[in-house]
Amino acid sequence: MNLELFNQHLFYRGLLGFACLGDSLELMKGLEDNSVDLICTSPPFALLRQKSYGNVSSSEYTEWFMTFAKEFKRILKTEGSLVIDLGGSWMKGVPVRSLYHYGLVLRLCQSEELGGTGFDLAQELYWYNPANAPLPEEVLAGFEN
């Protein structure tokens, strides 16, 4: 482990470990192969509207995420786990959901020879969110008039 790199980005240190604040791709380069038991991440979702923290479109999402996934695969122990909070998004102008996150899961589980990372899907967890679906712009305009 590159202690100098992690000390430069140290955010919290406790009895059970530490947390760093920085570019995760750069920080992962400081970790040895097969050295991590668990990666739990909640990356920006591919939402319709651009957010201040930065998010990519659903058409670019899989390729964007694969950069991280390759590093995850490198640093995770063979028996390690990857947990991803991966939310869906809505299609522009119609009340239907995008399927980008399913495409990402499929890609993550493909073999490396087929362009994936060879992860195995063990379980799906669902977060119940009772928020209303976004309405098409024409419907919203009708409410405003």
Give me a quick take on this structure.
The chain has 145 residues and is α+β, with helices and mostly antiparallel strands. It has helices spanning 3-8, 24-28, 58-75, 100-109, 137-144, and strands at 10-14, 17-20, 36-41, 76-84. The protein starts with a helix and ends with a helix.
Name its key features.
145 residues; alpha+beta; Rossmann fold; two-stranded antiparallel sheet; two-stranded parallel ribbon; 5 helices; 32% helix; globular
The largest sheet is: 2 strands, antiparallel
Ends apart, CA distance between termini: 60 Å
Arrangement of strands in the largest sheet: 1-2
Number of domains: 1
Structure classification: alpha+beta
CATH class reads Alpha Beta
Mean pLDDT: 87
Order of helices and strands: HEEHEHEHH
Q: Output the radius of gyration.
A: 18 Å
Q: What low-confidence regions span 5 or more consecutive residues with pLDDT below 50?
A: none
Q: Which shape, going by the Cα principal axes?
A: globular
Give the DSSP E fraction (strand runs of 2 or more residues).
15-25%
> What is the number of beta strands?
4
Helix content: 25-40%
Helical stretch tally: 5
CATH topology: Rossmann fold
| CATH architect. name | 3-Layer(aba) Sandwich
By CATH's scheme, which homologous superfamily applies?
A: Vaccinia Virus protein VP39
